């Protein structure tokens, strides 16, 4: 049975030691409206930071809901160790009662989501009454090294492992068993 919702599901592929710390309870706060963002910012940042730009860790869960957490949180904790439709970092600018999304990336070495997971981000933001940006910034591409198994974030289309210098595959391979 195909899972509902846009895009594909990404399971956690980072170090097991990080996943094990988690008890399966999502630490991320579900965002269903701009007011949810305002509430989160008020209760999770110092007073002087409640106006201006705030960067958070985010995932889009299987149900298609946006979950946000402190930017120092692991994506796997934000998601409660569950598969996700998207993961990365998001910036909000909060002014009085208005919330604007100013930057979204798919930078998550825990889930290694492909740039195509953008559809899931757009759907989750629209569902919450928030306007998405033009696209991922940065737009990350991940590969797993076939030799040393390290997760690589591709930079400038260089297909070479930063750990062992082995050649990295052209095709996405991070979710392969
Ligand atoms: Zn390697």
Automatic annotation (TrEMBL):
This is Uncharacterized protein. It comes from Gemmata massiliana. It comes from the Bacteria.
């Amino acid at each position: 049975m195909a899972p509902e919702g846009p895009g594909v599901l990404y399971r956690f592929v980072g170090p097991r030691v990080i996943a094990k710390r988690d008890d399966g309870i999502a630490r991320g706060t579900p965002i269903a409206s701009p007011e949810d963002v305002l509430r989160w910012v008020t209760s999770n940042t110092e007073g002087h930071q409640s106006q201006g730009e705030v960067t958070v860790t985010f995932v889009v869960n299987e149900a298609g809901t946006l979950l946000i957490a402190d930017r120092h949180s692991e994506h796997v904790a934000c998601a409660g160790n569950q598969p996700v439709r998207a993961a990365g970092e998001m910036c909000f600018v909060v002014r009085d009662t208005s919330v604007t999304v100013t930057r979204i990336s798919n930078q998550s070495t825990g889930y290694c989501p492909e740039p195509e997971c953008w559809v899931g981000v757009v759907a989750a933001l629209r569902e919450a009454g928030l306007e998405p940006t033009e696209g991922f910034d940065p737009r990350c591409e991940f590969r797993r090294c076939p030799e040393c198994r390290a997760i690589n974030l591709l930079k400038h289309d260089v297909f070479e492992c930063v750990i062992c210098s082995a050649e990295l595959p052209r095709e996405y391979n991070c979710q392969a068993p």
